Amino acid sequence: MKQTISITKATQPKPRPTDETRLGFGRLFTDHMFMMNYSSEQGWHDARIVPFDYIPVYPASTVFHYGTEIFEGMKAYRTKEGRVQMFRPLENVRRMNISAERLCLPQLDEAFALHALETLITLEQDWVPRLEGTSLYIRPFMYGDDPHLGVHAVECATFVIICSPVGAYYPEGMNPVKIAIESEDVRAVRGGTGYTKCGGNYAASLRAGQRAQKMGYTQVLWLDGVERKYIEEVGSMNVMFKIGGEIVTPALTGSVLPGITRKSCIALLREWGYTVTERLISIDELKQAADDGRLEEAWGTGTAAVVSPIGQLFYLDETHTINHNQIGPVTQRLYDQLTAIQWGKVPDTHGWCHPVC
Ligand code: PMP
To answer: What pLDDT, in 10s, does the model give residues 93-134?
Structure first.
């Protein structure tokens, strides 16, 4: 089915931010949003771009009661020539369909979802900030809104895309973060929803995140939900370690989100000649490597932070410092190369950049 997107422009566009050093993250939104509705009889319909506003949602909607919600996080970047491009957007659309399948939400047509993203970003292009390190964060999300109670697979859904100009993730430069390894709560189990980007995963992670923050740690590193023995991922990042010259990262066993930054870093590292192994990494192995000096570097990967050095790991009353709390050379090289590709500073030899306007 060929759908068209109707556009209703905002009559009172908001003033653009004048100081791009103070954008922060996800607090300011652009003038418009994309929406479309789904019903099992009609499929996806009524694709539209409308002024950014509240969305009326019926109180009996499944999203409020059974958490039928999934989302994505991606960015549009302004190149030095002033053009706007996305980074591997099809990967996000595909991952959203994987999440939708798990939560019994409807599938998106990949080409149409890309078209919706391009149309919205083109309309909002003035909102893509220009300052080095800034970007337009794009948040597509989908929720079930059947208007009746009773646990059931979704028959009605809404898909929305909103955009937020965001600041440089490291306004004062890239600094190693302190991470607490969680020994009590778990985020996901195999067979559950850990490999999807559904709101429930994040709701389940908040308590441990709060505890870690109270203790002065930035994020939580999760262990597997069954044995609480194997490293999984950080709050909003995948993790990689350089141990004795080799790079290791937790295998995608079903409870870890398959990060697009992770996939891109693995490709770059292999091109640079590193051995990258995706496997189970136990907390004992990591502690041992830290204690005998073989844990050379650790970093997180994700759309928001790109590549984030980990300087300290806290586990069961012990602190393990990595690389003297300094940014390691592999971490720095990955950050430099990925950001150079994303902001169009180097040729895109992988076909990862998706020009928009
Ligand atoms: N793990 C989790 C739980 C996340 O929320 C994210 C951010 N999307 C990531 C990993 C990193 O994924 P990506 O590189 O695709 O942003």
So the answer is: 999 999 999 999 999 999 999 999 999 999 999 999 999 899
Which structural domain, as residue segments, surrounds residue 338?
177-342
Indicate which residue's Cα is closest to atom 10 of ligand 1.
Answer: 237
Backbone angles phi, psi at 306, to 5 degrees: 65, -85
> Of 113, 135, 166, which marks where a domain is finished?
166
The number of the ligand 1 atom at minimal distance from the alpha carbon of 303 is 16
203 in a structural domain: yes
62 found inside a domain:
yes
Nearest CA to ligand 1 atom 9: 237
**Model pLDDT for residues 156-205, shown as the tens digit of each residue:** 999 999 999 999 887 667 899 999 999 999 999 999 999 999 999 999 99
Whichever domain contains 43, its CATH number is 3.30.470.10
* Beta-strand runs (E) in 145-268: 156-166, 177-181, 219-223, 231-234, 238-243, 246-250
Q: Are residues 287 and 246 located together in one domain of the fold?
A: yes
The two three-digit tokens of residue 30, written as one number: 């652009």
Cα of 288 from ligand 1 centre, angstroms: 27
Pairing of strands 353-355, 84-87: antiparallel
Residues in contact with ligand 1 by the CB-under-6-Å rule are 73, 233, 236-238, 257, 259-262, 301-303
Give how many domains the chain has, as a whole number: 2
Residue nearest to atom 2 of ligand 1 (CA): 236
Residue 172 inside a domain? The answer is no
